[in-house]
Write a structure and sequence with these properties.
There is one protein chain. Helix 3 packs across helix 4 and helix 5 crosses helix 6. The protein has seven helices and no strands. Helix content is 65%, strand content 0%. It is elongated. It folds into two domains: 37 residues; 84 residues, no CATH class. The protein is mostly helical and 150 residues long.
Length: 150
């Protein structure tokens, strides 16, 4: 037929080409199965490790020393002192003047305010603003900032 391509003839079963093609296909299938088996084993090992680890039960919802934030924390103790006695260091600590801090706080308070719950008091908006400002000013790690009882 004109314009029609003829399909290639499959190799006859008794030729070397036929057996070579079969061997290649079988080796590809075997390699594919090996890979699937390997990945399945990895998945099983991962699931077993997760089961062994399990979830650790919490010992407390809020650590007791964190509840003393208002007595010892930077926001409640250091910043008011700096505001009264050392405005330059206050500016260095947060990278904004106190007046600008208050203006920003006034504008975003409705968006960042949270309600207290039965389990813990919510962080006040000023503290929620001071934490990222201090982080951006110093690039101090959040974990070490937490130790400051911010």
């Amino acid at each position: 037929m004109p314009g029609h391509m003829a399909l290639p003839k499959p190799p006859q079963q008794d030729t070397d080409e036929y057996y070579t093609d079969k061997l290649e296909m079988n080796s590809l299938l075997i390699n594919n199965l090996k890979i699937q088996l390997y990945l399945t084993n990895l998945l099983n090992i991962d699931q077993q490790q997760k089961k062994k680890r399990g979830k650790k039960a919490r010992r407390w919802f809020v650590r007791s020393w964190i509840t003393q934030r208002e007595q010892y924390g930077h926001y409640h103790q250091l910043l008011p002192h700096l505001q009264e006695h050392d405005l330059d260091f206050y500016r260095y600590y947060l990278r904004v003047d106190h007046a600008i801090f208050n203006e920003i706080l006034q504008r975003i308070t409705p968006r960042i305010s949270r309600q207290d719950t039965n389990w813990r008091k919510a962080l006040e908006p000023g503290l929620r603003l001071a934490i990222p400002l201090h982080f951006m000013a110093t690039w101090e790690a959040y974990k070490s900032m937490a130790l400051n009882l911010y």
